[in-house]
Design brief:
alpha+beta, elongated, 6-stranded antiparallel sheet, about 500 residues, single chain, 11 helices
Length: about 500
Amino acid sequence: MQRIRASLLLAAALGGCTVGPDYRPRAAGELGVPDAYSVTAAPTREDLTRWWRGFDDPVLGDLVERAAAANLDIAQAAARLRQAREALVQSRADLLPTLNGSGGYSRSETLRGGGTVITLPDGTVQNVGGGGGSNFSLGLDAQYQLGLFGEVRRTVEASRAQYEASGFDQATVLLSVQAEVARNYVLARLYQLQLANARDSLALQDDNLEIAGFRVQAGLVSSLDQEQARVQRAQTAASIPQIEQQYNAAVSRLGVLTGQAPGALKPLLAAPRSIPRGPQTAGAGIPADVLRQRPDVRSAERNLAAATAQIGVAKAQLYPALAITGRLNSNAGTFGGLLETITGGLFAGVTQAIFNGGRLRSQVRGAEAATDAALAAYKQAVLVALEDVENALVALRSAQERERQFAIALDAANASAILSRSQYRTGLTDFTTLSQQEAALLSARNSAAQARGDQATALIQLYTALGGGWDAGAAPLADTDPQRLNQNGSR
């Protein structure tokens, strides 16, 4: 017994030796993160956990919440997160011994000629001779892979990092879906406004065509005016089906994003609303914020941690492996006598790779190369995140300036169209001038609407680039109730 106890203590001491590099988080400077953005940005920023509320549009908020609860891409990401959690549970199980129990009962009967029949547990009958009676047996087997050089602990470390990375991947999908819902909602409202502009313009052109016809009949102008009016009206009418097709595509996309049939949201969006307008100013914070706030960056960091742990797993294969097995047995003629006599054994075995053609060392080098690739991917994710923020800031500023200028252009085009229409009615100008001013007015209306839509889209792009839309203070975890997950579609 003392020898066994000493062996276990020695094994436990050796088990504290873990080979391979310990993971070290990288500082912002090592990842190429500058102290400030190269474009003008407010140094402070508001809470972006529910950024869509800043647009003050209840329909938009409702659609984003629906998508978070029912989107099928998010449901797939949640399932992958649960898979990663179970992989962690399985790797943690290797830290503990494996126990297997067995039990048996057999009955023997003495034959008339002196033989004995044994009824085995599976129901078969065997003649073994001798006397009769019953036999009870119990057995317990234990196996323990000690992991002297930390291969089990490194495997658990890698599984835990992969589980956390899967959680951040799910958050990345969530943010992407939220942004896509908001963008398509802005497009749907933009197309509604463009449809209204086209129909208003078509009504004016119907009036112009009628006036041109009257003037031709009165001999005041040639039929050229009437033909020009017909051309202009037909061109405007031809643009309406195209806008309707674009509107239908945006609404259908919203339906699928919310886990419904493409046409499910048409009644909800049928009533036109203005393009949502968010805050006029938006802070971006400092570049280092993306390391904490962007889930894709945090996922890349966790993948690097997992790859680093795999180096230790590979290196441990170069060293001896210790396995301990034990067995307890008991046999008795009565059930109550099973604990009277117990036999057992404890075995320890050590294995060491002697020759494998360099395969194990190649695995170590492969794991090191995978870690280098993961580090490069992490740095790339950080740089792309910074690029996204700067591009969004520039796009927002550009859209705001264009909206201001198009507002001026729209006011001037509206005044010119009214004046031209009045002059044409009184014969002070020709139809070509009127047609040009009407076309300029329609273009100015659509350009102003497009600029407003671009501003809303750029703001959505900025919020997404900054990592808004989730709680960065808590790592996403797998739902422990798959039934509830299936019912709700998300955590």
